[in-house]
Write a structure and sequence with these properties.
Radius of gyration: 47 Å
Number of helices: 7
Number of strands: 5
Distance between the termini: 149 Å
Largest sheet: 5 strands, mixed, barrel
Shape: globular
Low-confidence stretches: 1-7, 9-16, 18-49, 76-82
C-alpha cells in the first residue's frame, strides 16, 4: 500500500515536471514572437525614415524645377528686353546721303512707333556697305529706340536688310490704316497747285501706292508738269528719287 502511494507520488511529480516543461516551452516561444515583432517594427521604423528621404528628394526636385523655371523666365525677360530695345522700320528710300552726311532718308509707316519721312544714321559698322542701299528700293532697318525731335526725326540703325514681299505688304497695310489721303484730297479741291504740292510732299509718306497713283493723276489734271518750277516728290516706290530734305537737311 505504501509502495502504491509512492508510485502515485512519483507519477504526480512526473506530471508536474511535464507541466512545468510545457509552460517553459510556451514562455520561450512568446519572447521569440515578440522578437520577430520587434524586428518587424525595427524594419518598419528603419524603413520609416525612407519616407521623409523620398519627400526630401521630391522637394529638391521641385526646387530644381522651380529654379529652372525662374531661369527660363529670366531669360525670356532678358530676351524681351533686348527686343524692346530696338525698333523695326520698313523704309522706302528717297535719298542716300551717306557719302556726305551719313544719312539715309526715306518714307516709313509703323503704327506703334512713327510714320512719315525719316532720317536714318548708320552706325560705323554699316557704313562700309551703305552703297548697297539704293534709292527707289525698300529696306528693313533695325534701329535703337532713341529718336530726335527734328524734322524729319532721326534714328540710329544697327542693322538693315532688303525688304521682303511680306514686308512690303505689311508696310502697305499699315499705310492703309493710318493714311490721311482722303482728308488731304478734300482740302486740295480748293487749294492752289503750289500749296497742294507743298502739302503733299510732306504727307505722302503715309499714303498707299494706289493713293499716290491717284494723287499724281489729279496733279496732272491740275496742270502740273515735271519741267515747271514746282517740284513734286510724290512718286510710286520704284520712281522715288529725292525728297524735300534730301538736298538741304541740316543736322
Amino acid at each position: 500500500m505504501k509502495r502504491s502511494k509512492n508510485l502515485s507520488f512519483l507519477l504526480c511529480l512526473t506530471l508536474l515536471a511535464a507541466s512545468l516543461l510545457t509552460a517553459c516551452g510556451t514562455a520561450q516561444k512568446e519572447p521569440v514572437a515578440a522578437g520577430d515583432a520587434a524586428a518587424e517594427t525595427t524594419e518598419t521604423e528603419t524603413g520609416a525614415p525612407d519616407a521623409p528621404a523620398a519627400e526630401s528628394n521630391e522637394t529638391a526636385a521641385s526646387d530644381e524645377t522651380e529654379a529652372a523655371a525662374k531661369t527660363e523666365a529670366a531669360q525670356d525677360t532678358q530676351n524681351g528686353s533686348a527686343e524692346a530695345e530696338t525698333i523695326r522700320f520698313i523704309v522706302d528710300i528717297t535719298d542716300n546721303l551717306t557719302e556726305t552726311e551719313n544719312l539715309i532718308i526715306g518714307n516709313t509707316a509703323n503704327a506703334e512707333a512713327y510714320s512719315g519721312e525719316i532720317a536714318i544714321h548708320l552706325e560705323a559698322s554699316l557704313l562700309e556697305k551703305s552703297n548697297e542701299i539704293q534709292v527707289g528700293n525698300t529696306y528693313v532697318f533695325t534701329v535703337t529706340p532713341m529718336m530726335t525731335m527734328s524734322i524729319p526725326p532721326q534714328v540710329s540703325a544697327i542693322d538693315f536688310a532688303p525688304a521682303s514681299e511680306a514686308d512690303l505688304e505689311t508696310l502697305e497695310n499699315v499705310r492703309g490704316e493710318i493714311s490721311n489721303f482722303k482728308e488731304c484730297m478734300e482740302r486740295y479741291q480748293s487749294m492752289s497747285l503750289e500749296d497742294i504740292i507743298a502739302d503733299a510732299n510732306l504727307n505722302y509718306p503715309i499714303w498707299t501706292q494706289d493713293e499716290i497713283a491717284e494723287y499724281n493723276a489729279f496733279l496732272i489734271e491740275k496742270g502740273y508738269t515735271e519741267d515747271g518750277n514746282l517740284k513734286s516728290y510724290v512718286k510710286p516706290r520704284s520712281e522715288l528719287n529725292g525728297s524735300i530734305f534730301g538736298g538741304s537737311y541740316d543736322n
